[in-house]
Amino acid sequence: MLRFIVRRLFQAVLALFVLSLLLFAWLRSLPGGAIGALLGERATPESAARLAKAMGLDQPLYVQYWKFLKRAATGDFGVSNGVYRGHDAFSVFLERFPATLELSALALMLAVFVAVPLGYVAARRAGGFLDTGSVIFSLVGVAVPVFFLAYVLKYYFAVKYHILPPSGRSSVGIDATHITGFYVVDGIITREWDAAWDAFKHLILPALALSSIPFAIIFRITRAAVIEVLDEDYVRTARSKGLTTRVVRTRHIMRNALIPVVTIIGLQTGALLAGAILTEKVFAFQGIGEALAIGFTLRDYPVLQVLIMMAALIYIFVNLLVDIAYAVIDPRVRT
Predict the structure, then answer these.
(1) Are 304 and 83 in contact (CB under 8 A)?
(2) What's the angle, vertex CA 199, arms to CA 198 and CA 201, rounded to 5?
(3) What gap in Å lies between CA 258 and CA 262, rounded to an integer?
């Protein structure tokens, strides 16, 4: 098991190194580059040359890349010139990440806790009314764009019927104490129940919109995996031995069916945490997805590079955990 983890760690570090190369090359190929973003319309050849020398952009590329790696290793990605002008770019990630994590956690819980049981039930009743209806519903979940679903939910539940708040992370009149950056958790810790409930209500609509695609994918994978396992010889053998339905379901059906499901849940987790740009933009939810959208608009390259690097690191880390969980569930993977 240790060798398996070490091998995956080496692959993760290699993937992160390759990404840093691509990110370094991409940032220097954008129109205007960092110099144009900082100087704007006031740029002159002389001022651009002075700023390039001050930033070390007149040095050979390999020297620039080495300095970029050393700064990135210490969390120094430069200063924001758009999202939070004058603030350290890494602080933008630290401030925005709790919002995305809180939103993604709720979206993933909604997707998993509904999709896995529904996928199992649909597989047990394959071809029936529940199975057909669930498959159609999952297809709609994949086909409908997230931003369109977000606008529909926002219109009906926030604008038309005023059931839930339309945007943001908390209401303007709420006086809340923020300790961790997780608004719901902060409200529970400080026993400010009104603030916790208000923050949770602001999470519901974006979480529902964000969970639509993970739900559809996890449901279909669970359904297909359970149908495949139900036809295996070891399941029939277990039933012929007189084992209870609960034992057959948990030890023989679900444990084997969960192997591909765990993989897809991990991939979806990494994708959600990497930044739900469209969802956060529609609901003005102050996470890393919205910061990425603002960074692209304002050409805030320091913020873009730190958010992209950290999003990749999160994605790689989550997939490493998935690989380990995969190996725990199925010992064959370790070999």
Answers:
(1) no
(2) 65
(3) 6
